Description:
Elements: H1 2-21, H2 32-41, E1 65-69, H3 81-84, E2 86-92, E3 99-106, E4 116-120, H4 129-136, E5 139-141, E6 147-149, E7 159-164, E8 173-174, H5 184-201, E9 210-216, H6 218-234, E10 243-251, H7 255-260, H8 262-268, H9 274-280, H10 284-294, H11 299-320, H12 341-347, H13 350-356, H14 368-373, H15 386-391, E11 395-401, H16 409-418, H17 424-429, E12 432-437, E13 440-448, E14 451-456, H18 463-466, H19 468-479, H20 486-489
Parallel strand pairs: 4-7, 4-9, 9-10, 10-11, 11-14
Antiparallel strand pairs: 1-2, 2-3, 3-7, 3-8, 5-6, 12-13, 13-14
Helix pairs in contact: 1-10, 1-11, 5-6, 8-9, 10-11
Amino acid sequence: MAISHFFFINIIFTALSFLLQSNLSSANLVLPKSQGEALIRQLNLFPTDAEPVLDDRSVVSDKKIVEKRFRFPNIDEGVSVEDLGHHAGYYNLPHSHDARLFYFFFESRNSTDDPVVIWLTGGPGCSSELALFYENGPFKIADNLSLVLNEYGWDKVSNLIYVDQPTGTGFSYSSDRRDLRHDENGVSNDLYDFLQAFFTEHPQFAKNDFFITGESYAGHYIPAFAARIHQGNKAKEGLHVNLKGFAIGNGLTDPAIQYQAYTDYALDMGIIQESDRNRINRLLPACELAIKLCGTDGKITCAASFLICNMVFTSILNRAGNINHYDIRKKCIGQLCYDFSNLNKFLNQKPVRHALGVGDIEFVSCSPAVYQGLIMDWMRNLEVGIPALLEDGVKLLVYAGEYDLICNWLGNFRWVNAMEWSGQQNFTASPNIPFNVDGAEAGLLKSYGPLSFLKVHNAGHMVPMDQPKAALEMLTRWTRGELSDVNANANVGILKMVTDF
């Protein structure tokens, strides 16, 4: 313990020395909650803490799942709610003081026999409605707040679930702040309990193939949730979940490797100079050590690793200038890198709230309280549980848009390549092949056995938003076991082989 404290003091000294010697005037230590609010405001979401309004008790019930079929306003009145197959509901979390998770369920436009796919948005603390309306859901929000059908919605090939989680995100709520989650055990147990209740409510879907998907901080949620399902299946807990695979999009999974990649990616993409990289890299030994201590030495070192390692990222931003760190091709105009404000406007309409059955519960786009609650979880390595899943044949797809800085493809590729499992050498030696959509190269794919990595061209942090057609094609082929099919990905003529990403 004394050695750990000695190293911890050295970590703090190294970080403070860097700040004092640096001319990066805005690369300052920031309190976690303040940093969370700053990042979220750059998405124009104007967050508030999750404080539930409990005037409408219609959502409260002794039943674990309270669900209704619904139809959004402005949808063709000639279509019945039964025909649409759209559901919204609350799940009363059993291992909580007073927590309820809100979710959407959209039956496949094609067939109820299609796979069941759950989507988890990251943040941490950002609502699944972000993906629903701006990425891969059945609808998108028009400028006049009407809904238009998403031609590339993932409900075209799957039965699609979106969950507002952890508690305090989106329409999910609790009257007891002790229900905020602080680690992946709490998050994954809540999701597992929800899934058991969901399949109990919808037994006709329990036999379908099941896949977990998501992006960003869901790089933590997804492996933990997959491992929890796998554990439950092996122990014969409750209903068997037909888990076939999990997909992580531009995620944060192995921070020790991914934070090391920041300066290399930034230099490769021309947003910093080599002198900047050399200077910023002086933080990396302290960052790496802090991450190691976080994994073994409790809470204070996890907070230290969050603050120190994120100075690597903020230092790059200060050198790079006015860029959108979710898509470096774009400028961040003012403090608003994207404008998602129509989401709040749409969901705050009384007819919409009535259709969903949420009463007066406040919608929280991104919760600083949830963000802060998971600070101690941020730098933990979630790669450690993945090899056991691969060995048992559960598929993993890691995909990343090539222009994202914050969870860049290079860091993701490095942790996937470094992961130790029985197929590691074969995966490393496997060729990179073009991932083609409509005869054009949409990305580069590397696969072996149950493991695949896809670098997506012309996309930033949110691949389904930037490349919706390619993202839908990716999901379709992956869930059907055809992602690395040479015939599907080949150019007309000879298959193009690439030696390196």
